[in-house]
């Protein structure tokens, strides 16, 4: 019997692009390339893009069955960003003021420098920005802000960009 072929991997370093789109069609290349869209990738700290999905289960018990069966229920998503601040060319802090709504768009597995183009896969997350929380200073560290985002609509994973 032949061994399975190992799937090729893509390094995460340099192959992620994250942007904030304040309005419009967040899958549109024209909107993604517009001046109102803010490039966030290099404002974020290495652990600063924290998207989590929690799935709830529904118990499905049966008469005399010794195991409680289950089914998928609702799910919820959270998003938290941590980014640098205090420099002269801040991008994230002024763009993500508390109460601001828009979309976080994440493109994986393509070099960050690759321009937005039609047909690229992106995750589009509709959000409302929470409070900007200055993190405690650390010795030999950088100043950062951690911010929660409230998911306000149904995210689209692996959506294709359009013109």
Return the average pLDDT rounded to an integer. 97
The helical percent reads under 10%
Shape, principal axes of CA atoms: globular
Number of separate structural domains = 1
Distance between the termini: 47 Å
**What is the N-to-C succession of helices and strands?**
EHEEEHEEEE
Rounded radius of gyration (Å): 19 Å
Q: Are there runs of 5+ residues with pLDDT below 50, and where?
A: none
Q: Beta-strand percentage? A: over 45%
Helices, by number, come to 2
Helix/strand class: mainly beta
Give structural notes.
The structure is a single chain. The protein starts with 15 loop residues before the first strand and ends with a strand. Strand 3 (44-60) and strand 4 form a beta hairpin. It has a single domain (16-160), classed as Factor Xa Inhibitor (Irregular). The protein is mainly β. The chain has helices at residues 29-32, 92-95; strands spanning 16-21, 38-39, 44-60, 69-84, 101-108, 121-134, 144-151, 156-160. Strands 1, 2, 3, 4, 5, 6, 7 and 8 form an 8-stranded antiparallel β-sheet that branches.
């Amino acid at each position: 019997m032949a061994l399975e072929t190992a799937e090729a991997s893509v390094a995460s370093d340099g192959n992620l692009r994250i942007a904030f789109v304040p309005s419009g069609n967040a899958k549109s290349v024209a909107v993604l390339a517009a001046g109102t869209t803010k490039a966030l990738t290099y404002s974020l700290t290495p652990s600063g893009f924290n998207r989590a999905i929690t799935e709830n289960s529904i118990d499905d018990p049966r008469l005399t069955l010794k195991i409680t069966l289950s089914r998928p229920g609702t799910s919820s998503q959270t998003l938290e960003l941590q980014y640098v601040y205090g420099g002269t060319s801040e991008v994230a802090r002024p763009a993500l003021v508390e109460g601001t709504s828009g979309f976080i768009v994440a493109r994986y597995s393509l070099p960050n420098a690759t321009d937005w183009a039609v047909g690229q896969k992106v995750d589009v997350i509709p959000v409302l920005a929470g409070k900007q929380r200055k993190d405690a200073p650390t010795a030999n560290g950088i100043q950062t802000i951690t911010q929660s985002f409230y998911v306000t609509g149904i995210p689209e994973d692996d959506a294709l960009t359009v013109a």
